[in-house]
Design goal:
This protein is 41% helix and 19% strand. Helix 1 links the parallel strand 1 and strand 2. Helix 1 packs across helix 9 and helix 4 crosses helix 5. The structure holds beta-D-fucofuranose.
Length: 310
């Protein structure tokens, strides 16, 4: 029989842990896979999950977090849309002794005690990996002369957008000062529609672009539509590197339209639930729990496609 939580040991008996989770939105294939993973893992762990979708708006996340505080959930987890502007609401959680776990994306805060840990990827490293794999892509395609790069950035102010751009630039500054140049760079908000629209504008203003670095697969897929509409061949006239590794990205890669993908794993649910339990039980956890990921070139796409889990 379910008990009322009064009979257990130190960790509060067998009363289901209540987790409040504020998701970024549903902007990409990555995000849908992440949401499914979180919901499935919470169910598997037997937690009561209170879930909300912020539609990429910080004010929605802040009010969701406030409502979790009012409801007195055991643990709050959220994937912050942008990095700044969280201190006030996180202080409210702290005052009510509700621990906060960040997932997927990080925040900037002057008070490190405002969250317990981050479960997510190293986005700066993903940017570096994108730069390194672009070297291979260029060599393979035999592209000679000036590399003119268009960059489709993620959501402005979001950790993956800031850090992927930073890691990529590190590789450029270190090894490609003369031969690579980012000729145009703008946000496509991590969406297909955004990628499509911004790429169409890029092709107008900079028709000589020969490389696209997209901060996620969805924007690359949107951009491919505009490249084709302009009568160019994605993957040939314009070499494309993107990040995530969602199924549709792999499909585009197997069709020769994306040249390489840097994987970013969205299946964070099981790891997150484990951490949430530890945090609830007052056990120590690492400050940053990183996810493991790989890189894929076009010639690996067809073989990898059937085994992709998201
Ligand atoms: O790459 C993108 C999503 O925060 C890692 O957000 C995540 C990013 C992911 O919209 O597709």
């Amino acid at each position: 029989k379910e008990d009322d939580g009064s009979s257990g040991s130190g960790s509060g008996g067998s009363k289901a842990l209540v987790l409040g989770f504020s998701q970024v939105g549903s902007e990409s294939g990555w995000r849908s896979a992440n949401t499914d993973s979180v919901k499935a893992a919470a169910k598997e762990a037997g937690y009561t999950l209170k879930f909300s979708d912020a539609q990429q708006k910080q004010e929605n996340q802040i009010s969701a977090i406030r409502s979790y505080i009012t409801q007195g959930v055991d643990v709050i987890a959220f994937s912050p849309v942008v990095v700044t502007g969280w201190d006030a609401v996180l202080k409210e959680a702290k005052a009510k002794k509700i621990p906060v776990v960040l997932t997927d994306r990080s925040v900037e805060t002057s008070d490190e005690s405002l969250y317990v840990t981050l479960v997510g990827s190293d986005f700066t490293e993903e940017g570096r990996r994108a730069g390194k794999i672009l070297e291979k892509v260029i060599a393979k395609a035999g592209l000679k002369g000036q590399v003119k790069i268009a960059q489709l950035e993620g959501t402005t102010g979001a950790a993956p957008a800031i850090e992927r751009a930073k890691g990529f630039k590190e590789v450029m500054d270190a090894d490609h000062k003369d031969d690579w140049k980012i000729v145009v760079s703008q946000t496509g908000d991590f969406t297909r529609a955004g990628g499509k629209q911004v790429m169409a504008a890029f092709l107008q203003s900079n028709p000589d672009v020969n490389v696209l670095f997209a901060h996620n697969d969805d924007m690359a897929i949107g951009a491919i539509q505009s490249i084709e509409a302009a009568g160019k061949k994605p993957g040939k006239d314009i070499l494309i590197v993107s990040i995530d590794g969602v199924k549709d990205g792999f499909v585009a890669m197997s069709e020769g339209k994306i040249n390489a993908i840097v994987e970013c794993n969205p299946l964070l649910g099981p790891q997150l639930m484990e951490v949430v339990q530890k945090v609830k039980d007052g056990k120590p956890v690492e400050r940053w729990i990183k996810t493991k990921e790989g890189d894929f070139m076009q010639d690996q796409a067809a073989a990898a496609l059937p085994t992709r889990k998201y």
